[in-house]
Amino acid sequence: MPESVKVVMKLNIHDNECKRKILKAVSGLLGIDSLAFEMKDNTLTIVGDVDAVKITNKLKKWNAFIHTLGPAKEPEKKEPEKKGGEDEEAKKKKQEEEEAIKRLIEAYCCSRGDHSYPTQRLCIHAVEEAPTGCVIC
């Protein structure tokens, strides 16, 4: 029996009607534990004992592709022990880098004078002897 997987699909949809059709098409597959749909990102998250290829085939009408595929439960991560001296040094280096970036940005803006003007657009039209294209010989 395959392990439970989490599949995140990216879809091309436009409205709630497409969402309803997608959920109806996918809910018929066996082995699905949960479905979640994000309209903002156009992503469908499926958790269960399913084959990602079968899901993609069901959703090919909506230009679906697999965004991420992995285990349903994320493994527990152990936090590494932090040493006080190293953290302070890292923070100090990061702060120095941020200050250097700010100085570079200020120098760039001052050298330009921030007097940038909008770009001018130039339209050139071809002039023909007979603009209608009709020639009588």
Automatic annotation (TrEMBL):
* UniProt keyword Metal-binding present: yes
Q: Which family does it belong to?
A: Belongs to the HIPP family.
- GO BP terms, alphabetized: plant-type hypersensitive response
Lineage at the top is: Eukaryota, Viridiplantae, Streptophyta, Embryophyta, Tracheophyta
Query: Pfam families attached here?
Result: HMA
Q: Compositional bias of type Basic and acidic residues: which residue ranges? A: 73-96
Task: Tell me the segments the record calls region Disordered.
Answer: 70-96
**Boundaries of each HMA domain copy?**
4-70
- Give me the Gene Ontology terms describing cellular component: membrane
Under the heading InterPro entries, the entry gives: HIPP, HMA_dom, HMA_dom_sf
Q: What is this protein called?
A: Heavy metal-associated domain, HMA, heavy metal-associated domain superfamily
Top-level division of the source organism's lineage: Eukaryota
